[in-house]
Amino acid sequence: MAFVLEIELIAKKEYIRNSIVNLIREFGINTHIEEKETKIIFVFDSEHEKLQECLESIAQKLPASIFLKDSKNYESEEIVESLPEIKSDCPLNLGLCPNCQKELFDPSSRRYYYPFISCNSCGGNYSFLKKYPYERANTSFKFLRACSKCEDEMQSSGLKEKHYINSCHECAPPVRLVNKSSERYANDAGSFRTMFEVAAKAIADDKKLLMKTTFGHRLFYKASQLNKESIIMMINASKITDNLSLITEEFQALLSIERPILNVTLKSEELKELTKNNTGYVKYPEDGFSILLCVELQKLGFEYIAYEEADEYTEADIKMDYDLEVNSQKDLRVFLNKDVMFLAEGERVSFPSVAFESKNILSVAHDFVSVAFKGKTLFDKMEKFDSVHVDKANVLEGDEELYHSQQRIISQDEASFMSVIAEHNLFSKKCVGAYFDEEPSFLYYDGKNSIRIVPPKPFDTTNLLQNMTELREGSDRLVVNFKTKMPEAYAKLEALQTRDDVKLFEATAILLGLEDESMRGVVNEAMKFVGKGGLQIDTHVKDNRFDHIAFLTSIISYQLADVSTAILSYSIFESFGDYFSELLGELKSKTKATEIVLCGTHFANQSLFSRMQRNLKQTPPHMNINYPIGKENAVVGGLFL
After folding, report:
1. What dotted CATH number matches 194-342?
2. Most CB within 10 Å of its CB: which of 173, 405, 495, 598?
3. Which residues pair with 213 in a beta bridge?
C-alpha cells in the first residue's frame, strides 16, 4: 500500500516540489513523484515507520506560496522503491522558508543572526550565480571555502543538500558597517546583532541606510521620508491589518515565500498622510539582512519603514556592505482580487525558468535569452551563458546587436501574446488578444501564425494642441477655455510638443493635475474612488486605430466641468475596459476565434481588469501563469514566433 499526497498549484514551481522532497529525503522515505501540468503527486511508502512524522513536518515547514491552491490525500496500491531526487539546476531568489527563519533566531544554531542564511529551496541564492552550470565554482562564493560542518550538510539529505552556497558564521564573508567617522565589522552572532542594532538606531535617528542585502542594494529610511519611488516595508506581522485594509488573499501573499510587492489600500491615517494617497506599494521583509534589520527596528517601536531599490553608488548616511558580487533582480509585483491572481511585472520568482521542449532557436528580449537545457528550454539573463549554437535567432525590436546570420526582429506585443498561447498550449486554437502597455494593440492567432490586426499607434505630440482644436466643431472653443482655466496644464501640454518620447499617460496625468505624471499616478488616483460606476471617456477608434486626440480632449471636457480627478481617473480605466472588451468581442466574432488572450502590464489595474472580467464573463481571458503579463514574458513568446 502507498499513501498519496496530491498538491494542486496555480503554476508549476520547482521550489515547492524541492521543499517537500528535502523533508522526504531527511526522513528517508521511499517516494515516487508524478508531475502534471498543475499538480505534483507524491506517492509514499506507507509502511515506513516515520511516515506520520514526515507528513507532520511537511505541514509545519512547507512554505506558504501564492501558487499553492489545494491538497488532498488518498491510498494507492502502488509499490515505491526509491528516494526522490532534488532538482538543483536553477537557484531562485525567494523569501526564507519556515525552517531557515527558525534557525535565524535560535541561539543554539550555527546561523543565529546570520544574514546570509538560506537553503536549497529558499533565500537569495540566484543573486550569487555568475554562470551555468549552477555549482559553487560558478558563484560569488567560489572564493570562500565551506567549513567542515557546512560541507557535511551539503552531502547529507535535507534542506542543505546540494545547497552550493551553503555557509555559516565560521565560513562566511565579514560584513562591515561604515559611516563618515567609523567602521565596524561583524562575523559572528554577537557582532551581527550589535551591527543590526546600530543600523536600526541610525534609521530611528533619521539617517538613511544603504544596505547590500542578498537581493542587491536597498536604501532604507523612516516612512516620514517617503517619496514616489518608495516601497513601504511592513515590519510587524501582527500589526499589518492595523495599517492596511487587506483581503485574505493579499495578506497571505504578503507573507508568502515569494514576498511580492502589492498595491493595497491603506488603513493607517499616518500612512495616508505620508503617501498623500489611499493606496500604497507594500512588502514584507524576505532575506536575512532585511529581516534582522526589521527585528531591531520593531524593538524600537516601528511598525513599518520605507525603502527603495538602489546601487552601490547611492548616497546614504551609513552603509552596510560585504565583499561578494551580487546581481539583483527586479522585484515581483502581483495583481490580486478575490477571483484572480497573476504576476504583473518583475523578474524574481519567474526567472530563471526551465519549461517547454527545447528548440534550436535563440530568443532574445530585455537581456533574457532562451537556451536548450536537458531537453527543455532554460530562460535566463544573457550574461549567465557563454555561447550557444542555434539555427536562427528571434530578437526583440530595438536591440541593434547581431546575434546570428539568420536573425529576425520580433515585436513586444506579438511576443507577449505568443507567451500566453504557449503557456496554455493553445497552438491548435484560434485566438484573439489585446496587449496594453501605454499603447493598445490587438492580435490574432490562426493556429499557425500571429498577426497584428491593429498595431499599436505611437503617441505623437507634434501639433497636439492644434489637432485638439480641429477635432470636431466646437473643439477650438474648448481649447481656448482649457488655456484660460487651466494655464499650468496647458503650458505643460504645450511643452510636450517639442518632445518625441512622451507617453500617453504622462499627458493624461498632466491634464488631471497629478504630481506623479505617469501611468502610476493615474492608477493611484483611480484607487481613491470608492463609488460604483464612472463616466464615459472617449476611447473610440479613428481609421481603425486608437484616437489619442479624442481621448485627451474628452478628459479636458470633464476637467472644465469640475469632475473630481478620482472619478475621472477611475472612469478612464473603466472606459478602457469597455473599449478592449468591445473590440475583442468584434474580432472574436469576425475571425471565429474561440479564445481571448490578455497581456501587457497595464491590465494589472483593478478598475480596468474588473470591468473586463465582468464584460468577458462568458469567455474568460487567458493570461500568463508562470511569467509576468508585462514585457518580461517576451523572451518566452519569442521562442514560438
Report:
1. 3.90.870.10
2. 598
3. 216
Distance CA 251, CA 258 (A): 13
Check residue 63 and report its DSSP letter: P
Residue 444 CA to residue 245 CA, distance in Å, equals: 40
CA angle 189, 195, 201 (to 5 degrees): 135
Query: Residue 336: phi, psi to the nearest 5?
Result: -140, 135
- Alpha carbons within 13 angstroms on the beta-carbon side of residue 350 total 29
DSSP-derived letter for residue 601 is: G
pLDDT digits (tens, 9 = 90+) for 596-635: 999 999 999 988 999 999 999 999 999 999 999 999 999 9
- The two counts, helices (H) then strands (E), for the chain are 19, 28
Distance, CA of 320 to chain centre:
26
Of 359, 450, 367, which is closest to residue 411 (Cα–Cα)?
A: 450
Q: Is 87 exposed, middle or buried (0-12, 13-18, 19+ CB in 10 A)?
A: middle
Separation of alpha carbons 123 and 288, rounded Å:
8
Bond preceding residue 621 cis, omega within 30 of 0: no
Distance CA 234, CA 294 (A): 9
- The whole-number average pLDDT for the span 404-423 is 96
C-alpha cell at 144: 570562500
Q: Are 34 and 44 in contact (CB under 8 A)?
A: no
Report the C-alpha gap between 502 and 437 in whole angstroms.
14
DSSP state of 255: T
List the alpha helices (DSSP H) in 226-320.
240-243, 248-254, 269-275, 288-299
Distances (CA, A) of 227 to 178, 221, 240, 312: 25, 11, 21, 20
Q: Give percent of the chain above pLDDT 90.
A: 88
Using a 10 angstrom Cβ sphere, with 0-12 exposed, 13-18 middle and 19 or more buried, the burial of residue 169 is buried
Say what the pLDDT of residue 230 is: 95
Tell me whether domains 194-342 and 427-621 share a fold: no
- What angle is formed at CA 632 by the lines to CA 92 and CA 256, rounded to 5 degrees? 40
Residue type, position 224, single letter? S
Q: Are 185 and 176 in contact (CB under 8 A)?
A: yes
Residue 542: the pLDDT is 77
Beta strands in 329-438 (DSSP E): 333-336, 341-345, 353-357, 361-365, 368-373, 376-381, 392-396, 407-410, 431-437
The rounded distance, in Å, linking the Cα atoms of 54 and 395 is 48
Q: What is the mean pLDDT of residues 69-95?
A: 92
Do residues 403 and 635 touch, judged by C-beta distance below 8 A? no
Quote the CA–CA distance of 445 and 393 in Å, as a whole number: 21
Q: Is 564 helix (H, G, I), strand (E, B) or coil?
A: coil
Closest Cα partner for 637 from 460, 332, 627?
627
Beta bridge partners of 443: 433, 452
Res 549 pLDDT > 80? yes
The residue behind cell 472653443 is: 477
Residue extents of the structural domains in the chain: 2-76, 194-342, 427-621
Domain 2-76: CATH superfamily is: VC0802-like (3.30.2130.10)
Mean pLDDT of 240-261: 96
